[in-house]
Amino acid sequence: MTVHHPLSGAPSFSVFRFLTTKEKFHELLDSGGKVDPDEQERTEKRNSKRMRGQNKSRPHMKPTSYDNRRLCPSIIQERETKCVYGDKCKFIHDVAEYMALKPADVGEHCYLYDTFGKCHYGLSCRFARAHISADLKNLANEERVKAMEGRTPVRNSLDKDLQWRLRKKVVPFTASDAYMKTVFKGGHKAGEGWKKAVTAENGKALRGLPFCGSNMSPGLYSLNLALVKTIGPLTDADVIKLRQCEKKQVDFKDKLYLAPLTTCGNLPFRRICKRFGADITCGEMAMCTNLLQGQSSEWALLKRHESEDLFGVQVEGCFPDTMTRCAELLNNKIDVDFVDINSGCPIDLVYKKGGGCGLMTRTNKFEQIIRGMNSVLDVPLTVKIRTGVQEKANIAHKLIPEMKKWGVSMITLHGRSREQRYTKSADWDYINTCSQLASPIPLFGNGDILSYYDAMKARETEVSGVMLARGALIKPWVFTEIKERRDWDISSSERLDVLRDFTHYGLEHWGSDTQGLEKTRNFLLEWLSFMCRYIPVGLLEQVPQRINERPPYYMGRDYLESLMASQHVGDWIKISEMLLGPVPKNFNFLPKHKANAYK
């Protein structure tokens, strides 16, 4: 049903959208459809506030839409057997036809061929002239290929067998099921229920257990023993059970931590930050339910490059059973140094389901999740939280002492609430108070770190380290500045070299064909939407640049520096064309985030 304005006859959708009851609707009809100006003004304010910070209605173009006519994989990989689909195959089998339709090559040197000795994308590579012979055969540098044998640059891939078993739900979750049986229904806490179950079974035997760890009570130690009733001989599984203090230890002290960044915190970007001095890296937030369903796109977020020597993954969920099963799956199938729980995500999609920041207000579920994941993991479990949900109602200081009891190995605190987002500065005084409560568990502070001055000021508090998020997106060389305690007046050509390295890493990660190249371009443009906010040190009237200060429009010291300072999408596309060639005719891009969160 549509309400029409009595004067113009045009439908007034904004009126109908905010009617919540039949009474209000009939009142509107009785009044002749007139709209209260004050109510309309309040409605517009609510709409504008709700859309702030994100381009939710942005056009989404899949990389496959730029390459509709693709060559059959059987020809690209030069298989001896013919395509199993025959005439039903949707790809092109005529090489001459494909070469006539294929877009022009971007450059004369293929990064994959130069690095690995062979480009597996063959004729479909957008740099194919570097490794395609006159008779259209894919060439290989045998010496380089032999030197790369046995090397696995990227780990944690999802194999087809595991994906099939996840989709068919035949993967066993023995430890998780044993834990969930101890979680009482009717509102009882998981920790208390598990402790009573184990104590009732073992009786006095628990009293003789040794005290384990400075932060761990004998009662918490008993929680790590899964109760399994067995009949028969004693096996290693019965006696060899990792205690909290026997798990893999990670030294988090005084490290620089690159935050898990959705969209922009991809593997190529993390490689850039590792090169500039990041100590700890973490994969993008992954949904636990999608991981358990074997979704390839979600498992891609868990991939780890060989340069990431201290690497963790971040998972999001709101139920103990799925989170515990996900932790057991990750513990058995991938190589990580720690697992992080996202309890700080502010977006509505996650929060309204009870995940992200929502966990901070659901302490019973939060406890069950932490205890359950801790019981199945052989690596440390960390948590990332915010100060709270409401702006002036901090609750992190109440949660931190409880999380110490639940067995968390490290806590990261973002100094803002969910409601604040990025409109206010991070509260480092509150972070300092919470770090004192967390001791001796390490607590990392996060918020507004853009220079080594900010990092030094943060280290004057009692935090164990600092996490960088937007600061690393704006200037990834901030890690070098902090470690060398200096300002780096990086030139525009050096910054372009950084972007070129990113495109090389992107082509290696996503592929050098049209689909991979456009995916690399898309992530490059997302990064440039943040990087454009950097102001060169040589142009600053007052050092350092503050992350929430809105810079005036300025001209750089050369054309490229001015181009990189532009906040127009068209100029970002020009930069991408310098590195990845011209965009397709139907190309369309709008950044995911508006990247304009200034004071």
TrEMBL record:
<dbReference type="InterPro" id="IPR035587">
    <property type="entry name" value="DUS-like_FMN-bd"/>
</dbReference>
<keyword id="KW-0507">mRNA processing</keyword>
<dbReference type="GO" id="GO:0008270">
    <property type="term" value="F:zinc ion binding"/>
</dbReference>
<feature type="domain" description="C3H1-type">
    <location>
        <begin position="109"/>
        <end position="134"/>
    </location>
</feature>
<keyword id="KW-0677">Repeat</keyword>
<protein>
    <recommendedName>
        <fullName>tRNA-dihydrouridine(47) synthase [NAD(P)(+)]</fullName>
        <ecNumber>1.3.1.-</ecNumber>
    </recommendedName>
</protein>
<keyword id="KW-0285">Flavoprotein</keyword>
<dbReference type="Pfam" id="PF01207">
    <property type="entry name" value="Dus"/>
</dbReference>
<dbReference type="InterPro" id="IPR018517">
    <property type="entry name" value="tRNA_hU_synthase_CS"/>
</dbReference>
<dbReference type="Pfam" id="PF25585">
    <property type="entry name" value="zf-CCCH_DUS3L"/>
</dbReference>
<keyword id="KW-0479">Metal-binding</keyword>
<dbReference type="GO" id="GO:0102265">
    <property type="term" value="F:tRNA-dihydrouridine47 synthase activity"/>
</dbReference>
<dbReference type="InterPro" id="IPR013785">
    <property type="entry name" value="Aldolase_TIM"/>
</dbReference>
<feature type="domain" description="C3H1-type">
    <location>
        <begin position="66"/>
        <end position="96"/>
    </location>
</feature>
<keyword id="KW-0862">Zinc</keyword>
<keyword id="KW-0521">NADP</keyword>
<feature type="compositionally biased region" description="Basic residues">
    <location>
        <begin position="47"/>
        <end position="61"/>
    </location>
</feature>
<dbReference type="InterPro" id="IPR000571">
    <property type="entry name" value="Znf_CCCH"/>
</dbReference>
<feature type="region of interest" description="Disordered">
    <location>
        <begin position="29"/>
        <end position="68"/>
    </location>
</feature>
<comment type="function">
    <text>Catalyzes the synthesis of dihydrouridine, a modified base, in various RNAs, such as tRNAs, mRNAs and some long non-coding RNAs (lncRNAs). Mainly modifies the uridine in position 47 (U47) in the D-loop of most cytoplasmic tRNAs. Also able to mediate the formation of dihydrouridine in some mRNAs, thereby regulating their translation.</text>
</comment>
<comment type="similarity">
    <text>Belongs to the dus family. Dus3 subfamily.</text>
</comment>
<feature type="zinc finger region" description="C3H1-type">
    <location>
        <begin position="66"/>
        <end position="96"/>
    </location>
</feature>
<keyword id="KW-0819">tRNA processing</keyword>
<keyword id="KW-0863">Zinc-finger</keyword>
<feature type="zinc finger region" description="C3H1-type">
    <location>
        <begin position="109"/>
        <end position="134"/>
    </location>
</feature>
<dbReference type="GO" id="GO:0003723">
    <property type="term" value="F:RNA binding"/>
</dbReference>
<dbReference type="GO" id="GO:0050660">
    <property type="term" value="F:flavin adenine dinucleotide binding"/>
</dbReference>
<feature type="compositionally biased region" description="Basic and acidic residues">
    <location>
        <begin position="29"/>
        <end position="46"/>
    </location>
</feature>
<keyword id="KW-0520">NAD</keyword>
<keyword id="KW-0560">Oxidoreductase</keyword>
<keyword id="KW-0288">FMN</keyword>
<dbReference type="GO" id="GO:0006397">
    <property type="term" value="P:mRNA processing"/>
</dbReference>
